[in-house]
Specification:
By secondary structure, this protein is an alpha/beta fold. It has 15 helices and 19 strands. It binds S-adenosylmethionine (SAM) and iron/sulfur cluster. S-adenosylmethionine is lined by residues 61, 67-70, 111-112, 114, 145, 147, 170, 172, 209, 211, 240, 242-243.
Length: 454
């Protein structure tokens, strides 16, 4: 990839886990009642067809990794577990009151923070409590994020017995200088142990998160981390670009200087070289920043056009309705987004008052829905089209001229209303989506809201 292309397209841009992106939500047209109405509508349309997904946010971590951009609360006090589980179950009850039938659960994903901060018996209470009020879809998929330093064999067995078959472990980088800089000392042996134990227990999809672009990280560190990862042969690898977003409250991304970060060109080389190494080991690139073996469901989803993207990242199937439980979680009814209160005390207070703790969101209009579909197509299939009426939107005329430069640079091909992102263009997929993001185009932010695209 040429240096000039990297420099030209390395701008601040969304990762498009939603459209409109969070900073562009129109809070004037949003209300809790609108959100509930959109959830009910989506439930009625989809519960018996697709079922619904649940994202449950478990925010506690015992120590702060200074690179982390997730919403978390650092504590060693495990007394926080029980009240939090009680609150999650209360929140689920409030949603169940909205539904006319028993919900059919297709997916549960436990994210964080650190789900494995919780004792296995508390996690069992949570899942049993959720399932007591629900039916299961035939091909349900349960997954969780495990921290290799504190995932025990009891965690793995408890989750397995509850029906979980997919687990992802945060690896980031194995080099000790990088690990010290990000305050996350995590020997290879810990990752090896949890990976092998998961496999022995019977998990069918084991995933590792690796990051490039971390402070003090060199190309060699990335390659070495990939070599060690390959030795454990996870089914799936998330190869994330480090998102530097120190302005977001609570990230704690202040323990190192920006001068300690690799330059955009080095970061790009880390990615390119890493991708090559992954390909040699049989990993296929899936959408943006994910790789999978041919046997993994994400690869199959890509091949069959079923790949979907939501706030959890890429998923192998789409449900129209995703409910988010827990502080900061975002729910998606397809017609709207609703985000929960981030502060734990305020979240508890809303639940004590029998109120669904959503504090902001966005209700999509027809134009938003069409653009949302185009951006999803580009992110998941590297292709979209607007020839048919269903996919035509009124502001398309403003988008087309913005595509010209991508065409000239060989990043996309456009013919007869069909846009195709080329191989060369794939690293710039976020930039291509930005051309469709009419809200971003209409109001460019004065301050940086998003991480850099490269
Ligand atoms: C909630 S954490 C995973 C579970 C557990 N807390 C752990 O750290 O192992 C989810 C993943 O998000 C990714 N992540 C967090 N902050 C990031 C950032 N600033 N840029 C890119 N990826 C990030 C990391 O790869 C991390 O493993
Ligand atoms: S990377 Fe994981 S363990 Fe570290 S602070 Fe973030 S959520 Fe917590």
């Amino acid at each position: 990839m040429s240096k000039s292309l990297v420099n030209k397209y390395n701008v601040a841009g969304p990762r498009y886990t939603s459209y409109p992106t969070v900073p562009y939500w129109d809070e004037n047209t949003f209300s809790l009642d609108n959100w509930k109405m959109s959830v009910k509508k989506s439930f009625d349309e989809s519960n018996t067809i697709d079922g619904l997904s649940l994202y449950i946010h478990l925010p506690f971590c015992e120590s702060l990794c200074t690179f982390c951009g997730c919403h978390k609360r650092i504590t060693k006090r495990h007394e926080v577990e029980s009240p939090y589980i009680t609150a999650l179950l209360k929140e689920w009850d409030l949603y169940c009151e909205l539904f006319v039938d028993k919900p059919v659960i297709k997916e549960i994903h436990l994210g964080g923070g650190t789900p494995t901060f919780f004792e296995p018996q508390n996690l069992k209470l949570l899942i049993d409590g959720i399932l007591a009020k629900s039916d299961l879809a035939k091909d349900y998929e349960f997954s969780f994020e495990g921290h290799p330093n504190n995932t025990t064999v009891e965690h793995l067995q408890t989750f397995y017995d509850l029906g979980f078959r997919r687990v992802s472990f945060g690896v980031q980088d194995y080099n000790i200088t990088v690990q010290k800089a990000i305050n996350r000392i995590q020997p290879f042996e810990n990752v090896e142990r949890v990976t092998k134990q998961s496999r022995e227990i019977g998990y069918t999809s084991i995933s590792h998160d690796i990051i490039f672009g971390l402070p003090f990280q060199t190309e060699e560190h990335v390659i070495e981390t990939i070599a060690k990862t390959k030795a454990l042969l996870p089914d799936r690898i998330a190869f994330y670009s480090y998102a530097h977003v120190p302005w977001i409250k609570g990230t704690g991304q202040r323990g190192y200087d920006e001068s300690n970060l690799p330059t955009p060109e080095i970061k790009r080389k880390q990615y390119e070289h890493g991708k090559l190494e992954l390909a040699k080991a049989g990993y296929h690139e899936i959408g943006m920043d994910h790789f999978g073996l041919k046997s993994d469901s994400l690869y199959e989803a890509m091949e069959t056009g079923k790949l979907h993207r939501n706030f959890m990242g890429y998923t192998a199937s789409k449900t129209q309705l995703m409910i988010g439980l827990g502080v900061s979680s975002i729910g998606d009814s397809w017609y709207g987004f609703g985000q929960n209160i981030k502060d734990i005390k305020t979240y508890y207070k809303a639940l004590d008052e029998d109120c669904i703790p959503v504090y902001r969101g966005h209700i999509l209009n027809d134009e938003d829905l069409k653009i949302r579909q185009h951006i999803l197509n580009i992110m998941c299939k590297f292709k979209t089209s607007w020839g048919e009426d269903d996919f035509f939107f009124t502001t398309l005329g403003g988008v087309l001229p913005k595509l010209e430069e991508f065409k000239t640079d060989g990043l996309i091909e456009v013919e007869d209303g069909v846009l195709l992102v080329t191989e060369k263009g794939r690293p710039f997929v976020r930039n291509v989506c930005m051309a469709f993001d009419v809200l971003l185009q209409a109001k460019k932010p004065n301050t940086q809201l998003f991480s850099m695209t490269i």
